[in-house]
Amino acid sequence: MSNYHSQEQTIYRNLSGKIQMGFYDNGERFPSVKEIADRFHVSYCPAQRALKLLEKDGQIKLYRGSATAVLKKPYENYLESNIFKRRIKSVLDLCHSLELISPALCTYNIQHFKKASSSLWLKKIAQGQHAGRGLYQQFERSLHLLGNQTVLSLYYDISSFSGSAFLDILYLKYGKEKADSFLQHIASEYADCIRNQHQDTSFVLQEKLEKLCGTFFDAIKDYLRNTECDADSKAQEFFSCEPRKGRTRYCDVVAIDMICRINQDVYPVGTRLPNSHTLADIYHISGITVRRTIALLNKLGVTETVNGVGTFVISRGGPDIPYKLKDLTLDDNMRNFLEALQILAIISVPVMLVSLPHVPRKMLKELFAAASIPDEKKSLVHAVSIGLQSVIRYCPFAAVQEIYKKLTLLLLKGSILRLEETGAEPVTGWTKISASIRKSCAHSDYEQLARAFQSLFQNNFASSKQLLLEIGVEGVEKITGF
């Protein structure tokens, strides 16, 4: 059995979910292996293996030289299935999380619609093709416009985990005719947002989308709240995501980040590194990954482990480190770093506004102190770290915490860009942003603090994109800017 977050398993669960939602009930052709590989940005092999898994389960029948036949849905009634019952609480949490981050993503997305894409979207809605599964399909297509594979990957994980629950609940609650009418209304309202995008400010557009998301999720949340009372808490399954399916070596990126900290004297030569438990907590990785990271640092000659005592820093990381870890300089790793910055810039305001009221005063003081460090680069790195930790530890929604954990790890892929920095380098715009952070921390002004972090991520995204374009990283130009 392949890993749950492997490429073939992710493709398998998404295609299985689409079969469950009735995507292919009315004669719609099942996608070919090539189309699946292109859609999920994978090679032929994982796409083919996913189809074989679907055939093994009896959901499809593959025919050489002709179209694939859909045989049956995975569940006769998904809402009565054991897998849904194990996920009820997490699906409710996903509703809250999606209601929080979707308006910001959609606002950004709509503002980057090209006229051709916008016209096609509106034409399909006018033809009444957006009830139910059509709404899902068009939302997925719209995400492709961002040029951000990490967003798509997160969407696929969310879609796989929730299955057909959202549509099934609406059809159960309203009946087919009323549910189709409701979904058509949602699609039409979204079309109006696209049509009037140039007339509305970002604030007005996002307000409309927040109201629309609330309308969509309210009925679903009511059903889940009433049903979760009967769910077995001990047997509940939690949502997890993995943006880098099948390729992630977190020990590499954590090692690079730690070398950066050694070069900046956060961990000076001759001192002992934090213990494994502390490192696991800092980077949100497993104990096994910590051990692999330390083993790698030892092999690179940066640290030395003394049994029973700890791991000591014995030298700084030299300029040859990137060549020793050449996998870290691959273009797709740099794109993932840039994509993580883009997502954080888009969703940071709503996420931080809902998280900051739960953050202890002590952590805000730490953030104030980080923003006060004279060395601007070091100050920025510390402030970003504390800001991300505040969401990971205190956001009331588990799915958002999970997403931020994985985005934090993707940001480490950019550590290679600051390997030789000492922390004394100036940062464009940091003087103004750091002052805003200090002021908002002192007065507990959450709105100002959230906006400061949005500016921080936007500035970093813009400067990082320009740098990656200059050094010739492929695919960066496709990621939409601010």
TrEMBL record:
GO biological process, one term: negative regulation of DNA-templated transcription
Record keyword tRNA-binding present: no
Native species: Anaerostipes caccae
Keywords recorded for this protein, A-Z: DNA-binding, Transcription, Transcription regulation
InterPro entries: Bact_HTH_transcr_reg (IPR050679), Tscrpt_reg_HTH_GntR (IPR000524), WH-like_DNA-bd_sf (IPR036388), WH_DNA-bd_sf (IPR036390)
Residue ranges occupied by any HTH gntR-type domain in the UniProt entry: 5-73, 248-316
The keyword Zinc-finger appears for this protein: no
Matching PANTHER family: MANNOSYL-D-GLYCERATE TRANSPORT/METABOLISM SYSTEM REPRESSOR MNGR-RELATED (PTHR44846), MANNOSYL-D-GLYCERATE TRANSPORT_METABOLISM SYSTEM REPRESSOR MNGR-RELATED (PTHR44846:SF1)
Superkingdom of source: Bacteria
This protein's name: DNA-binding transcriptional repressor ExuR
Pfam families: GntR (PF00392)
Any GO molecular function: DNA binding
